[in-house]
Write a structure and sequence with these properties.
Elements: E1 4-7, E2 12-15, H1 21-31, E3 36-39, H2 50-68, H3 75-81, E4 85-91, H4 98-105, E5 110-115, H5 131-134, H6 136-145, E6 149-151, H7 165-180, E7 186-188, H8 194-202, E8 214-218, H9 220-224, H10 248-258, E9 265-267, H11 276-279, H12 294-304, H13 312-326, E10 335-343, E11 364-371
Parallel strand pairs: 2-3, 3-4, 4-5, 5-6, 6-7, 7-8, 8-9
Antiparallel strand pairs: 1-10, 10-11
Helix pairs in contact: 1-2, 4-6, 8-10
The structure holds N-carbamoyl-L-aspartate (NCD) and zinc ion (2 copies).
């Protein structure tokens, strides 16, 4: 049985850091585990311009510095946290212009543009209701500049069953999008179904520069849990995220995709903090907070598949495939996990008085992060 895992330091290719007071705590947890992160723009109001993305990036870096000054972290931890690099994303709206896309592509700060189908998820109200009808010129500009489109892939029609919304999206949006903009680079974010995994597996097209055209991120919760987790012994709001957890057959398909070694699949936690009282209420928010413990959870998922014995597959998913897709170097150094049990706290005392309940609160994980660089 493998006891130690050593890989190049990982990145998180789908992350929510929020803003304001929460930022300092949330970014510290991520910076201790990931060198870079693709930071989602679904703030209130959303990050829709390059100038806003530049300002948000600075607030994130300031928050890292502030966290370093609290005295809560060792000198070694602070040194690692200061290496953290936020990669910014623009929130696509009906008003986004091709000029803003060009500015984004030349900014060196904005790495992608995010599609939130209006009404599909947390803070998606400002999103797009008809991508192909509304955003043709913008998609063309993105294609031209090689700026990837990151997609929350669910249809929002009230008459489509909530468990079928991703599979329907593959047929009604993803396939037409790939046909109409064959050189647009797309990331299907937080995939949850066999249909999405198959679609991404079978489409290994590359652009003229040899870069993959389609990829997908996968969260720890969708690799480790099926929809039973939502109803185990009663309603479990801390397991509620979007797209919602699916049946076991879908989880198995995701595990197979993540451990396949295919370059299309990489790590994206979708770690999304919400205050405890906003999740434990009559209309609870969608999103699971996993960042501090995500690497142990991914290791557990790979071990379930017997895919840890050679760390190669794990390293591809966590640390190699994402950089290759985004055209950035693999991180230098060593990230290490050891087989050592670790209990996830019941509650983290930040954001509001009610705190945050992390994913798998109170559970014991098999792996502990033991070296950061
Ligand atoms: N995944 C979620 O359930 N929630 C995310 C939004 C998103 O990624 O869809 C959030 O911002 O809280
Ligand atoms: Zn989403
Ligand atoms: Zn997300």
């Amino acid at each position: 049985m493998i006891q130690t895992i050593q890989i190049a330091p990982p990145d998180d290719w789908h992350l929510h850091l929020r803003d304001g007071e929460a930022l300092e705590h949330v970014v510290a947890a991520t910076a201790l585990n990931f060198r870079r992160a693709i930071v989602m723009p679904n703030l209130k109001p959303p990050v829709t311009t390059v100038d806003q993305a530049v300002a948000y990036r600075q607030r994130i870096l300031d928050a890292v510095e502030k966290a370093c000054c609290t005295g809560d972290y060792s000198a070694e931890e602070q040194a690692v946290m200061r290496l953290f690099e936020p990669l910014m994303v623009l929130y696509l709206t009906g008003a986004t212009s091709p000029q803003e896309i060009e500015k984004a592509a030349n900014s060196g700060v904005v790495r992608a543009v995010k599609l939130y189908p209006a009404g599909a998820t947390t803070n998606s109200e400002a999103g797009v209701s008809d991508l192909l009808g509304q955003c043709g010129a913008v998609l063309q500009a993105m294609e031209l500049h090689g700026l990837p489109l990151l997609v929350h892939g669910e249809v929002t029609d009230a008459d489509v069953d909530v468990f079928d919304r991703e599979a329907a999206f593959v047929e009604t949006v993803m396939k037409p999008l790939r046909r109409q903009f064959p050189n647009l680079r797309v990331v299907f974010e937080h995939i949850t179904t066999e249909q999405a995994a198959t679609f991404v597996t079978e489409d290994s097209g590359r652009d003229a520069q040899g870069r993959l055209l389609l990829a997908a991120t996968i969260t720890p919760q969708h690799l480790l849990y099926n929809r039973n987790a939502l109803f185990k012994g009663g309603l479990q709001p801390h397991w509620y995220c979007l797209p919602v957890l699916k049946r076991e057959v879908h989880r198995k398909a995701l595990l197979k995709a993540a451990t396949s070694g295919l370059p299309q699949f990489f790590l994206g936690t979708d770690s999304a903090p919400h205050a405890r009282h906003l999740k434990e209420m009559s209309c609870g928010c969608a999103g699971c907070y996993s960042a501090p413990y995500a690497m142990a959870m991914y290791a557990e998922a790979f071990e379930q598949m017997g895919a840890l014995e050679s760390v190669e597959l794990f390293e591809k998913f966590c640390s190699l495939n994402g950089p290759a897709f985004y055209g950035v170097p693999v991180n230098e150094g060593v990230f290490e996990l050891q087989r050592k049990s670790f209990e996830v706290p019941q509650r983290l005392p930040f954001v509001t008085e009610s705190g945050i309940v992390p994913l798998r609160a109170g559970e014991v994980l098999d792996w502990t992060v033991t070296r950061l660089r």
